[in-house]
Write a structure and sequence with these properties.
mainly alpha; about 0% strand
Length: about 120
């Protein structure tokens, strides 16, 4: 019985490894729901809108950021990297200059439902 259980565990690990190698991890990331994100526009009045809203310049979209960044295969693979890099880098730069830079470490500080745009 112990050998059967050990064999099953090995098969699960091998199967998971093959699934990841076959792109299963990428597919799962694309299909998982986007975590909610709170963004208080009023707290960012000193930031030029086009810093985040590139669509104001290149006319690439009219909806929410996630409408394209989650559904467009060309940018979907980098959605977390883009948003985390954009938000965190700005917050860290402000903090390095002794200013209140906003959250940088705890996921829950940003990933909560947005009450108002």
């Amino acid at each position: 019985m112990r050998q059967l259980l050990s064999g099953a565990v090995v098969l699960i690990f091998l199967g998971t490894g093959l699934w990841v190698l076959a792109g299963g991890q990428e597919q799962a990331r694309r299909e998982r729901p986007m975590l909610p994100v709170t963004f208080a526009h009023t707290d960012h009045r000193t930031v030029n809108c086009v810093t985040c809203h590139h669509d104001y310049i290149d006319d690439s979209g009219k909806g929410l950021c996630f409408d394209c960044h989650k559904t467009d295969p060309a940018v979907n693979a980098l959605v977390e990297t883009h948003f985390h890099g954009l938000c965190r880098s700005c917050h860290l730069t402000l903090q390095a200059h002794g200013e209140d830079g906003g959250p940088t470490r705890r996921c829950i500080d940003c990933h909560t439902a947005d009450e108002a745009p």
